[in-house]
Amino acid sequence: MIVEHLSLVDFRNYAAADVELGPGPNVFVGRNGQGKTNLAEAIAFFATLGSHRVSNDAPMVRDGADAAIIRARLAHGERRVQLEVQVNRQGSNKARVNGAAVKPAELPRYAQVVLFAPEDLQIVRGDPSARRRFADQLLVQRAPRMAGVIADYDRVLKQRTALLKSARARGIRGDALSTLDVWDDKLVSLGTQLIAARLALATDLATPLAAAYTAIAGADHRPEIEWALSVEGAVTDEDGDGGSAPGSVDAPAASTGTSADRIAELFRQALAAKRSAELDRGLTLVGPHRDDLLLRIRDLPVKGYASHGESWSVALSLRLASAELLRADSRLGDPVLILDDVFAELDTDRRARLAQLAADYEQVVVTAAVEGDVPDELRARMVRVEAGRILAAPESEVEAETGAAADD
């Protein structure tokens, strides 16, 4: 898949912008705060229906505007597809494919993007929510129908939790709250689908993750990935909830062979066991919203034990493994690989290894504050970004500056 053209209206710091992209490497260079990452964010939005920097859409709308427009022309071999999304500051977003209105959830069917950014270090070092978000965005790209499952689960979770809070405020105990059973059924049905999909994803990621880590780090540290499920009794360090030590759980990780029926049975048992505690706290205490994706190297949790370089290698490997999965199962060709301000954070060896891996993809988008941070093999097409404006660099300038830092 190739993004041939990107157009923005009232997106972040862009009043209006148009940029042409080509196959192979495309590098956006500019000082920090000029809008490079905004371009990467816009491309990735079609695939993930969200931002890698913020949890809601409002910050992506330019100050003073009610909505932002992102348009992209994609090439899937000889086929061309025009995507458009209207990101609203308030209310639901709108989308079009080749001019016809569609639900935004349809967009990932046409666009596959893997974006790596400095924020991805939080996947391995941050709260469980960062790891769940990584997994769920990849699930949606592999199976777009999962966007509806996740949205429905979140809606039921909010409604069930609101009922628990209301019951707590009124002093109602579990026996007198028969309506909770209805929400339990919905929560179990949707949650089981999500848990099963996540378990399958971890299984599929294991082999490409190990290969990518060895390629990036230059060493085999035996990376492992598995889920710790709250329905099986795992207690994670969820949102400062007084759980276990960083990177660990108080119960074994889930078996990747767990069937949907078994998951549903465990879910119901866990809800029954936690009902009194849930009413006391006004919270839903079990379900995929409280699970954690465990990452280990050398049989130790990455979070809390891995060095800075090892943590970077694991985060990079997760994204590269994601790209390999999408490449393997997609009819759209390679996903677009975006490396957002990444090379400045890596040592020379990791830069070189990452560049070699990235150069194998049909299209790569790189952002950098300093041109010299970008390895030579990724400097084929250079575009300068300045204060929300796209400035194509003349070929003579690119040639003259190859191998030198551009002190913007």
UniProtKB/TrEMBL annotation:
InterPro entries: DNA-binding_RecF, DNA-binding_RecF_CS, P-loop_NTPase, RecF/RecN/SMC_N, RecF_2. It is found in: Cytoplasm. Keywords: ATP-binding, Cytoplasm, DNA damage, DNA repair, DNA replication, DNA-binding, Nucleotide-binding, SOS response. The RecF protein is involved in DNA metabolism; it is required for DNA replication and normal SOS inducibility. RecF binds preferentially to single-stranded, linear DNA. It also seems to bind ATP. SUPFAM superfamilies: P-loop containing nucleoside triphosphate hydrolases. This is DNA replication and repair protein RecF. Its main location: cytoplasm. Residues 3-371 form the RecF/RecN/SMC N-terminal domain. The keyword Membrane does not apply. Residues 236-255 are annotated as: Disordered. ATP binds at residues 30-37. Belongs to the RecF family. The gene is recF.
